[in-house]
Amino acid sequence: MEQSLSYIDQLVAHGLLMETGVDGVYARSAVFEDVIARFDALITAYGSDGGAEVVRFPPQMSREEFERSGYMKGFPQLAGTVHCFMGDEHDHHDMLDLIESKGDWAKHQKQTEIVLTPAACYPIYPIAAKRGAVPPEGLLFDVMSYCFRHEPSRDPTRMQSFRMREYVRIGTPEQVLEFRASWLEKGQNLMRKLGVPMKLDIANDPFFGRTGKMLANNQREQELKFELLIPVVREDRPTACLSFNYHQDHLGGLWKLKQEDGETAHTACVAFGMERVALSLFRHHGFNVQAWPKSVREILWS
């Protein structure tokens, strides 16, 4: 019977996720959260040698900085904004009437100064820029945030609300490329020890429209993005659970991140999809964590 259920239905049946009535938005059980917490600690252990500054963000960021990022140029289909009621008493009554009649009450909502964070690293760049010139040794941040992307789906690996943890390197091209090369090796080693099948591949972001296709091709040709792919829902369409990204001086230019010699700083990051990694572990080791392979349990629960 279980084999006939979709993966999301299996997760719900085992009490690991709970449905909220909206595809891609799920409550997490204590067991699911414990796996994420254990994996989070493992990431920290692997990244402890870098001396990264730890920063944890709320799931919203400044609309001004979001607009500066250019996210709406490349990914308008994924973005989420925050709107609130700002009317008077008459507007309030009208809105309640529309809610009661199932009408379009959203017309009484106005855009606020915050948006839903699309990627954990975005809020760190303006913070770094306000500190002045990037020091000769560069900067390294350990960031994490709940992120939002509007792609409702019954595929649990495409949640609308999910956690992303990243290490972000800012500095010279040599510094950031060395950082990415190091994490390409460490990331594969980390997941290999967790006993899941995987492969590393060149990738591109889901840019929107005709221009987006050219951006995606350019990203692949220059090998700016690699993804660590793990089969989760389908064997023939593995899921990107880790990504390794080199932004060149693009983000440095947007936020005016300058080095002491006046050159624009380059940036790179390694990103961990926390829920996706947990989902891959349940897929390959089973829904009962007590029955997971001893080697995996020793790594996560040691």
From TrEMBL:
Residues 108-279 form the Aminoacyl-tRNA synthetase class II (G/ P/ S/T) domain. GO terms for molecular function: ligase activity. InterPro entries: aa-tRNA-synt_IIb, aa-tRNA-synth_II/BPL/LPL. Keywords: Ligase. Its EC number is 6.2.1.n2. It comes from the Bacteria. It is an enzyme of class 6 (ligase). It holds the Pfam family tRNA-synt_2b. NCBIfam families: PRK07080.1 (NF005479). This is Amino acid--[acyl-carrier-protein] ligase. It comes from Dongia soli.
